[in-house]
Amino acid sequence: MAGHTDNQIRIEAPFQLVWDITNDVPNWPNLFTEYAATEVVSEEGDTITFRLTMYPDDNGQTWSWVSERTRYYDEKRTHSHRIETGPFEYMNLDWYYEEVEGGVILRWVQDFHMKDTAPVDDEWMVNNINKNSKVQMQVIKDKIEKVYHSRRASEFKTVSIHDCPQDHRRGATIQTLLSPRTVGSTSGFMGGATLQPGEAIAEHYHPYSEEFVFCIRGELEADIDDTVVPVPAGTAILVPKETRHRLRNVGSDEVFAVFHLGPLAPRPELGHVDTETREEAAAVAKKILAAREQQR
């Protein structure tokens, strides 16, 4: 029989910061609450050999051992194993860093087997590691996020729409200003939409996010599912999540609107689902305008 544990936590901070802090082995006594000291035995390339010493346990026993840890930056993972195994036949530990929208999921996978002479068996150690991993992961999360937010506080960034790329894939002109990529936002993103007379933004919906749309200038209309809603200049509308919507310029002047979506989807590609093409949206807008012209 062998022991296996698999624990993870989401850290709201950039990958590079999470990677740098968690791989600073000499500083682990300041990152974990269970380690009293770290001694680097040797370091070559991406591999470090080090001794870890824990604080005394409830019985006054102080545990210490030597481990080897190798970093695989391109794969966003590390692999460690104990050289001095102590009560273990073997102990392997893999850390995985998965980048997600607004942060990183840090995952610890441990595989081990206790010696027959060990004071505890594999099942006991699995329960102990699972319990302790949750505590230490939360400690690490809190410390890294504190560092991240402290750094951000002194690095407020403004973004000009004139510097933002233009996206025409869904019709009209969409520009994202504030997002996880541009300013490190964690709750949502916002931008501007410019629609020339007769232009439309193709129908779509957001599985995870509400969308707030505020028309700054022009005559905007929103098709919400099968309902037409006027959104003229100075007016805002809330589009609930999982609700189909299309935006159209029904006036003779340019429309400019500001939009905000939140919360963020787990991954960017999951946040937007198209239900028509921009060509189909343009045809719908043209048909509606033509019908109104005939009524006049």
Describe the structure.
- This protein has 296 residues and is an alpha+beta fold.
- It contains five helices and 17 strands.
- The strands form three sheets. The chain has a seven-stranded antiparallel beta sheet. A five-stranded antiparallel beta sheet has the order 8-9-16-11-14. A five-stranded antiparallel beta sheet has the order 13-12-15-10-17.
- A hairpin with a 2-residue loop joins β2 and β3.
Q: Give the biggest beta sheet.
A: 7 strands, antiparallel
Q: Write down the Rg.
A: 27 Å
Shape: elongated
Mean pLDDT: 93
Please state the structural category: alpha+beta
Individual helix count: 5
Which bin fits the share of residues in helices? 10-25%
Give the helices and strands as they follow along the chain.
Answer: EHHEEEEEEHEHEEEEEEEEEH
Q: How many β-strands, per DSSP?
A: 17
Given as residue ranges, the uncertain stretches (5+ residues, pLDDT < 50) are: none
Portion of residues in beta strands equals 35-45%
- Strand line-up across the major sheet: 1-7-6-5-4-3-2
Question: Roughly how many Å apart are the termini?
Answer: 82 Å
Task: Describe, in short, the structure shown.
With 296 residues, the protein is of the alpha+beta class.
